[in-house]
Amino acid sequence: MFRKILIANRGEIACRIIETAHKLGIRCVAVYSEADANARHVNMADEAFLLGPAPSKDSYLKADKILEIAKASGAEAIHPGYGFLSENAEFAKACGQQNIVFIGPPVAAIEAMGSKSAAKDIMAKAGVPLVPGYHGDNQDPAFLAKEADNVGYPLLLKAAYGGGGKGMRVVWKSEEFADALASAKREAMAGFGNDKMLMERYLTKPRHIEIQVFADNHGNAVYLAERDCSIQRRHQKVIEEAPAPNFTEAQRQSMGEAAVKAAQAIDYRGAGTVEFLFDEDGSFYFMEMNTRLQVEHPVTEMITGQDLVKWQLLVAANQPLPLEQTEVSIHGHAIEVRVYAEDPDNDFLPATGKLTYLRQPEASRFVRVDSGVVENDEISPYYDPMIAKLIVWDEDRDRAISRMLRALDDYRIAGVTTNLSFLTSLVEHPAFVAAELDTNFIEHHQDTLFAPATKENNQALVLAALYILETQKQPPAAQEPFSPWQFSHGWRLNEQPMQQLTLQHQDHSHSLQLEQLQDAVLVQLDGQQLRCHVRLQGDELIATLGEHKTRVRISQYQDTISVFIRHHRYDFSYQTELHTDTDMVEDSGSLTAPMNGTIVAVLVEAGQHVKAGQTLVVMEAMKMEYSIKASIDATVKEVFFQAGDLVQDGAELVELATEES
Ligand code: MV4
């Protein structure tokens, strides 16, 4: 076995790999960018080396520098994780030339899966089922049109070198074919520099089911059951589970054997994933093969009891697979959700910022959290904004869903917007509970998934006010050193039993009156009166509001108070003397670029009146489009960019003048 390996990655997957390596007594060399100098993966490793500035191309994609560090540090092998250099054949080749083991498949296997049409040729010859269609070299539009009529409609055009749904077009009837082909080709050429197309019968309600395969250098190859990854948005997986619901043992075996055949067809080694489209009638078709460890591998680990990173290290060190096919068994049900810094209510715009408060559900045999961050870390615009993966296991799917809902409630993050509430909406959705899965799930259930905000606002508001009252009572020594409560507010509870509090929530001001009685607090809000009792224990607030006793968690960072009720977070800002009212107006009146990107469209002009929620500017970043919306009713004062302009993270895009200013 290796004595020392280098992990050419960051975040949760780097941490995940280090954990197993350490269990096996292997020392770990981390690499990091300037943005990650204090990252969790760096602190977990035995030693770490700086790669360069934050952007990936200057750091985690610097193949030569990484190899140099591996050599200099005495690492015998490199684990690439996923993303970055993990499926880069050039890098795998360079490792071999430097006598460093690439913990992944042979170069030829990576190359064989690089082109979709070439991959399909190989799979067809190996007898792996393919969606009926055409994937030949003749790209003459007239010839393709004739082939299309043979394939039948609806039909799907796919870019041979594409990915992420780009260069893909559904064609519903023959008359639409020519236009669709031309437009798919344009998109493919712009995106991948190659406009070769293939065509398939379009499956309207497929599931994405993939098989985990493993092969060693001694002729052994096995499959480790399947994962259902049908819940995706814009070709990004959101929820993955294993085993696939309503999937029979016979289906598992036939898809598993097809996947092993696929791996053997390209002389595969190590961990791989063969993705299939699973049609409503039970037939399945090869989609593509991923030649790396996948993000969602933990669900397979939870149901098989195996450590897939350990398997990777064994295979890379020339040892045989730990199990034969007949020894692989599955038990129970596992579900993974990807916790992201993003705003589901604003087109899933990636969010950046400091994780000012971070509490994760407690790990157990039922709950696993694969995370690469700690409290006070920054989610930067440079990398994928995934915060962590939350994985649960239980005896069956329904119990696993209960575990997940509880774990999501126990996952509390303040400082950045997250998808935690959205994940809860998904997991508790009746169609998800009933396992009515297909790749259009999120789009199809849009109306019920993006429900308007709940009615707990007032409850959260009262709790935030009671929290402020309680923190004022506590002696300064018990408070945080930089808390604004350290400053004098001009009044103290003991001296003045009645006080007025104003809290801001999403650009709305709320005023409450609090009166301290002998044994209770009287709260007045919107003309209503509520008798309350309150006690604060650490970050836990135990309160009785009228006749309802609740227990919630609260965090505070500077003047923002976050109240966590179930999976919801309510943020309130409290105007201390440190912040004036004019600051607030300016804050809500200026709209800034959430990340580096390009302006795609400017939809408003100076002088125009806009409504809260109206899209002002559309920008593109990380190959996705984002809408910048007005948060308030206002008049556009100035627009600073036009379509085509490059903008920096934080650049002011539009200035709004509010009615008051
Ligand atoms: C398909 C399909 C339906 N019919 N092929 C999307 C990305 C690419 N890897 C393959 N994709 C699809 N191929 C045929 N013949 C539907 C999809 C598809 C999809 C597949 C898996 C997971 C999510 C998806 C979302 C939309 C479309």
TrEMBL record:
Cofactor(s) named in the record: biotin
CDD domains attached to this UniProt entry: biotinyl_domain
Domain Biotin carboxylation: 1-447
InterPro entries registered for this protein in UniProt: ATP-grasp, ATP_grasp_subdomain_1, BC-like_N, Biotin_BS, Biotin_carboxylase_complex, Biotin_carboxylation_dom, Biotin_COase_C, Biotin_lipoyl
Alphabetically ordered keywords of this record: ATP-binding, Biotin, Ligase, Nucleotide-binding
Ranges for domain Lipoyl-binding: 582-657
Record-given protein name: Acetyl/propionyl/methylcrotonyl-CoA carboxylase subunit alpha
